[in-house]
Each structure stands twice: as C-alpha cells, then as structure tokens.
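User: Can you help me understand a structure? I only have the sequence.
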Amino acid sequence: FWLKPLQESLPNPAKMVVKGLKKKVVVKGKKQMLKFTIDCQQPADDNIIEAKDFEKFLTNRIKVDGKTGNLGDKVTITREKSAKINVSAEAPFSKRYLKYLSKKYLKMQQLRDFLRVVAPNKTSYELRYFNINEDNEED
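Assistant: Let's start by predicting it. Here is the structure, written out as tokens:
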C-alpha cells in the first residue's frame, strides 16, 4: 500500500521517449521522379542559342554522386520540339542546380548580359531577355 503512490509518480520506462529522436522510415517501392523543364524558345527562335548545344552541355556537366558524365538511369535529358529541354531525375536533384548550370552555359556563350533564367512555375525555368528600356530622356 505504501509502494503504490511511489510507483504512480515514477514514469513508465515504456512511455519514456527521448525528444528529437525519431526513427527514419524508408519506404521501398516506387521511386520519386522529379521532372524539370527549361524553355529556351525565345532565344532559339532568334538563333542566339542552339537547344542541341545546351542539351549537350547539361549532359556533360550534370553531376550524379559527385561525378560528371555519370548520368546512368538516374537522370535523363530530352529535348522537345526545338527548344524545350526536359530533365527527369530520381529524388536527390535540385531545380536550383539546373539554374546554376543554365547560368554557367549563358556565361560560357557570353550571353549572360542579355538573357536571364526565370522560374515561371514550380517545375520549370525559362530563358528570357532582359527588359532594357532605351527611352532614357535627358533634360
């Protein structure tokens, strides 16, 4: 009878949980595919860049597991029509990395001063011209 209040005040070891410690649940089965598009329609129509060259640049430069030229089955790059490039990848791949590589390509082609990389939606980028207003009126 005198042990009962003591036992109730002690925490149950089965209920004790360390905060911040959670089990990582690994779900096996269908792998998550990420799909991104880069639309270079405007500059390609003006013959400023070749989508074929841009696709080749991405194929050579994208790193998988820290190595270039190691795309394998994890990353696929395809070109739609004349100027849309699709990049499909398994989970560890960022959209930001595609923007970085796109800027690098523009810099290499010396087009970085005229074109910029814009994200119109969550899964795509677009190469657009800078809006340069030449209506500078001087008094």
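Now, to help you interpret it: The mean pLDDT is 82. The longest strand covers residues 33-39. Let me know which part you'd like to focus on.
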